[in-house]
């Protein structure tokens, strides 16, 4: 709870600063803020907490694969609730190609897992469902909101949600003391939430939710590659094959035929 609360706070301050710098007009009507009262918890606070809590009991490889179900859930939900993001053979092939790449990429880690937590796995899957449903809902309801405010508004609500609920649910609500912990919280908040949400909402309204959530396919290859570079982990064939399939999936889903 403490981690998510500070992450939302730093993310909200970052997005607010960007919106103020751009001199954007904030929404003043109740229906818009009612939408963000839903999106704040469902797209940020709840799923981020579920993933953070789930990863205390499951391997990161398992969490990465379960989190990579977001595009698959989004594909189905968007098909039924959006008129301009329907399920196509191209999208299905692309998403399944990327999912196969992630499984291959993390195959060695999965085979070495000694035990897992059903509750932890369920938490990450539930978080993926929250992400998928909320991003489709955001596409339908936030098109009229200006630029960076689209990302700032749900962060504001998520911050209020976590700081009101956190100290009540999690006792003691311990404030971090180590400098490195604050560096991590600032990194997650400013880049992983503030900047990320602004970019997320921009892409959401430019290319649609199905293509936007393909970003979750990048996490496992990035994590494995950073492990090779900074942690002296071994460079395996899974990294090449899995990485190529992930890249191929992005190309397939975003491929557009040239008009004659």
Description:
This protein has helices spanning 2-21, 30-54, 60-67, 70-81, 89-105, 107-111, 118-141, 149-169, 179-207, 209-212, 219-230, 237-254. It has 260 residues and is an all-alpha fold. It has one domain. Helix 4 (70-81) packs parallel to helix 7, helix 5 (89-105) runs antiparallel to helix 12 and helix 8 packs across helix 9. It starts with a helix and ends in a 6-residue tail after the last helix.
Question: Which key phrases capture this entry?
Answer:
mainly alpha, 260 residues, single chain, 75% helix, 12 helices
Write a brief caption for the model:
The protein is 75% helix and 0% strand. By secondary structure, the protein is mainly alpha-helical. It has one domain (2-95, 114-213).
Let me know the number of strands.
Answer: 0
Per DSSP, what share of the residues sits in E-state strands of 2 or more residues? Answer: under 5%
What does the largest sheet look like? Answer: none
Rounded to the nearest angstrom, the distance between the terminal CA atoms is 54 Å
SSE layout and pairings?
Layout: H1 2-21, H2 30-54, H3 60-67, H4 70-81, H5 89-105, H6 107-111, H7 118-141, H8 149-169, H9 179-207, H10 209-212, H11 219-230, H12 237-254
Helix pairs in contact: 1-2, 1-8, 1-9, 2-7, 2-8, 3-7, 4-7, 5-12, 8-9
